[in-house]
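Record 1 of the preview.
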Amino acid sequence: MMKWVLTAAVLATTVGMAQAETEKAIVAGGCFWCVEADFESVDGVKSVVSGYTGGSTKNPTYKEVGRGNTGHFEAVEITFDNAKISYAKVLEMFLRSVDPLDAGGQFCDRGDVYRTAIFPLNDTQKAIAVSEKEKANQALGRDVVTPILAAQTFYIAEDYHQDYYKGSNLVLTRGGPKKQSEAYKFYREGCGRDARVKEVWGNAAPFAH
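->
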């Protein structure tokens, strides 16, 4: 009986440690397809989900958010193993994957929906966010306009937005019919995302190519 109790205690401790290693980060960086594509390639990231947050409308749709009257941002929820990558590192990479000097949107996507933002989920994350923003200020020698906002409900976007960058469905683009994965590349290049990120961050940009 004693052996069983000790084993159960060890198992409980192990489970608790495993749970503690999983953490979430919510950020807005313009087009959520792009942020999702960037962070799904990062070691230690378990999943990235596209969605909406920061506004007042409950269960918003893509069309509603796009009209700009919900107050929501296009955002992503990043689930990561904090034994492999820290929240601070996630934010460091995030800030260097966007143009944090632009208060009017991101790249070719203009309007409040596409602004950058960080949504800390607790006081510890908030302190880290403040620190990482200040480091970005110092690195650029300019004021980063990306706000740190109180976390609100994160609404998962429609299924067709998830993993859009590697989808195989045929969609109509300005360049004609293309598979989603090809349409995504066409959009990202045409929007000038990577070009602008490299202009702002140079070699510090982790995803620009």
